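Tip: read the tokens left to right.
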């Protein structure tokens, strides 16, 4: 008689903040902690601004490769992430979309308040 054994490896699930807010304070007040699915290894935060004013904050669980691809858009070909710019040479309000990935919900919520390009360039993944 042959015996087959299955080895189960315990992994700790990642918890992230999820939700949508019209400001960092609104997101913070209404965020919900969720346990991410097995294929979602990072917490993502996205902050959209117009003219230097935050219009939308989105938190979610994300697959690591997808989150890294989104984060790469911050400063690639035309720089989507411009948190310090408010108006262009013609006086039009500049739009900015900044995204980052983190290993913890605490880093995720802290990143929502990033105000400089240097902060958004910080790699929060261990």
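Filled-in amino acids:
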């Amino acid at each position: 008689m042959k015996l087959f054994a299955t080895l189960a490896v315990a992994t700790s699930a990642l918890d992230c903040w999820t939700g949508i807010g019209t400001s960092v304070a609104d997101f913070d007040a209404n965020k919900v902690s969720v346990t991410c699915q097995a294929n979602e290894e990072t917490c993502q935060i996205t902050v959209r601004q117009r003219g230097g004013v935050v219009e939308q904050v989105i938190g979610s669980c994300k697959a690591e490769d997808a989150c890294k691809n989104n984060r790469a858009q911050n400063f690639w070909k035309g720089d989507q992430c411009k948190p310090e710019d408010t108006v262009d040479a013609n006086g039009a309000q500049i739009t900015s979309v900044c995204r980052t990935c983190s290993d913890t919900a605490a880093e995720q919520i802290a990143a929502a308040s990033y105000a400089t390009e240097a902060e958004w360039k910080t790699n929060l993944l261990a």
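Residues 15-120 form one domain. Strands lie at 15-21, 32-35, 42-50, 53-62, 95-102.
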